[in-house]
Amino acid sequence: MTDFPYGSIGDFRSKVLNDGQDAANDLERLRQYAAGTNPANHAYITISGSLPHDGKEQLPMAGPLAGVPYACKDVFETKSMITTAGSRALADYQPKTDAKAVEILERAGAVLIGKTNMHEFCYGITGKNPVYGTPVNPHDPSRLAGGSSSGSAVSVATGSAVFALGSDTGGSVRVPAALCGLVGLKPTYGLISTKGMIPFCWTLDHAGIMARSCLDTASVLQVLAGWNDATKGRAETRLERRLQALSTEFLIGKRIGIPRRYFFDNLDDEIASAVEKALLFCQEHGAELVEVQTPDMTHVRPASLAIQLVEALSWHGPRMDENAHLYGDDVRNGLVQGQFILGEHYVQSLRLMELKRREFATFFKSIDIMITPTTPVIAPELATQSVSPGMEAELVGNALARYTCVFNLTGQPALTIPCGLHSSGLPMGLQIIGKPYEDLSVLSIGHVLEKAGALGWIQPISGVPSE
Amino acid sequence: MVGSITVDLLERVAIALAAREWSTPYLAALLTDEGSGVVSGAQEHFTALNLMSQHTLGDIAVPPRFCNPDALDD
Asked: Which site in A105, A145, A156, A397 is 20 to 30 Å from A10, CA atoms measured?
């Protein structure tokens, strides 16, 4: 089983089709692996007590994700397991139904390994969680995994799940994926249902996917977005075949926007070099690099936070009289801060969101995609409060979300892919942004770069179970 | 620029205007540099919001909701 935990969706599907009992045994071993590694890496809040492992009859045999093990951020409601949102306030909450995304995955045959740890109520980008333990970065346990979908990233990076569901309000899928060396997709707003997801901020919440390749991410997106798939029971989906057929020729004539100002400011030198190298690769293979004028980003982060804090307070406020003491300090303090944000601030933030949507739409008329670093820094140490990637120190939360949060305002698809290893041994991420509903273009570019080995290979981390 | 924010000021607003007595034990934390621990300190955040509010956005209205398929489910 040396390479089994790092199998692709296709590998698992093939195994189910070839020998259901063998696949069922593998799933059970993965479940045990998740349980065995959890005390050290804190990836999961709840691990499934049982899987369909008693024989071929019980294992899902049909569906595009038949027998594929996945993990799910504990913000998606599940009728088979409690849903805590990473909080003591919901420690015993047992939903009666599954979130829409979970329901769709189950129908497609995917097997839920467990509910993953997270920053409480999706509040922060660091993934710190004093109640359930802070998930640690698989590449260096003294470092953060990033958040808020921290456990989802750790589950996939350590191989206990092939893919994971996360949510992204300002970067909460892309940032942990980047810090842990994974692919992470925040699709176009609304493309994946958020129904049955405990809300943090309705206006900016996106459901997203983490996986170890763009190909696997595409397979999951195809299912979750409801794009029809007539290949039930086959070892690959139509979207996979379409991506697999792509080569670097796909880059010819592509116009890639590079927003130097802001998206390359106060950036770690090695991350900057890695992104430049990727851009050069694209240019050498026929893409046109277009220097674009970045819209004014001055008010983006405050506006994003204002929308988040006000909407979060709207959901949590009525629960606070009884439960305030059960909340973690940072979430509670954020909610307390939210009550002082004026209605005018909130409305102005929504209008600014619309301005950014229009500005990015305008300059995307002259480009196909945009490429930026995903984060300005590598995974910070666990106790880090502030970082200084360039000349200026800033709060770690602000720094990690600096390049990602604007695309929750615009609603565009944004993908992070691994971009090689830093000299510290930690992963770096590259972000590809596309036009609304052109998620497939973003995944196609990512897949071509990944397939060509243009960005450097990230070794799977240790801790892989063996027979 | 906003004037100095004090715990007393925040407490008056929290109780008299927002009726959120539960929040009063936690108000002092907003005035630290770290603020909520994730977002900027309150003073910095409110200064930024007030600057944003002075920004003229022309004819841009509050945007309609994005097309959200969930809204059609029920």
From this structure: A145
Give the pLDDT of residue A226: 81
- Over residues A126-141, the pLDDT tens digits come to 999 999 999 999 999 9
| Nearest Cα residue to A167 out of A111, A87, A85, A105 | A85
Residue window 17-46, chain B: list those with CB within 8 Å of chain A. 18, 20-23, 26-27, 29-30, 34-40, 42, 45-46
Can you give the pLDDT at residue B1?
A: 43
Q: Give the pLDDT of residue A236.
A: 61
Q: Contact B38/A344, CB-based, under 8 Å? A: no
Half-sphere exposure of A331 (CA within 13 A, CB side): 31
Closest chain B residue to the Cα of A298, Cα to Cα: B52
Joined together, the tokens standing for residue A282 give 């694209």
Please measure the distance between the N-terminal and C-terminal CA atoms of chain A and give it in whole angstroms.
Answer: 6
- Cβ-Cβ contacts under 8 Å for B2 (sequence gap 6 or more): B43, B46, B47, B50
Element (H, E) at A71: strand A69-73
- Give pLDDT tens digits for A321-336: 999 999 999 899 899 9
Which residues in chain A have Cβ-Cβ distances shorter than 8 Å to B49?
302, 306, 341-342, 345, 348-349
Number of neighbouring beta carbons within 10 Å of residue A342:
14
Is A397 a residue whose pLDDT tops 60?
Answer: yes
Q: State mean pLDDT over B48-68.
A: 81
| A186 part of the active site | no
Nearest to A47 by CA among A30, A61, A67: A30
A148 catalytic residue (yes or no): yes
Give the closest residue to A429 by CA, choosing from A443, A411, A415: A415
What was the pLDDT predicted at A18? 85
Please, what are the domains in chain A?
A: 4-301+330-451 (3.90.1300.10)
Question: How far is B35 from chain A, CA to nearest CA, in Å?
Answer: 8
Å between A306 CA and nearest CA of chain B: 8
Please check whether residue A67 is in contact with residue A11, taking contact to mean a CB–CB distance below 8 angstroms.
no
